[in-house]
Amino acid sequence: MRQSFAPVRDVNMGLRAILHGNWDETYPRTSQIIEYGSYYEQLDRYRRHFDQDQFFVTTYQSIKETPQATVRAISEFLGVSKEADVTDALDGKANKGVYSKLRLSWTRLTNPIQFEYFHDGQRLRPRENIGRLGRAFIRFVRGIDRRLLRPIVANKRPSLNPDVEAELVRHYRSDAKALKEEFDLDVEHWSVCA
Question: Is the pTM of this model over 0.90?
């Protein structure tokens, strides 16, 4: 049976359903939303195949607070001598999220055209050939979103309920501790370390 994407729901209701496993059977891929936040687990998978000295791990906080020092450290790690000035590149938002349920529902209409499931029915991959009609439909949907919906539909980032935030903190606490211990990352500012 082909599984569908996660349903568009209120963020608190959706995260609670994922954390409690309520959608595991109907939407098995939704657990990946939580899994992708387990950074230590992600890095640990790579460590099974590569030596730790092949890793350079930093945090977004480090990039925002000390961009030049972070770029310098990355350059040294890669053995690249030329240093780039990245301060201007960090000023804007490159990847603005879409939070409006209306816009999310509209833009996800393109998903069945753009993606297909692997044989396991859970993982997605981009479709090899979507054809002219498929590309035209995707441009149409994106155009309506960009020209009509985005300017008039509020896109306020939702806030987490304290109980949902507390569940997420509990869920990620051991992962953050492992990141700090095994990768020597400064994650003290993350609320999961409190």
Answer: no
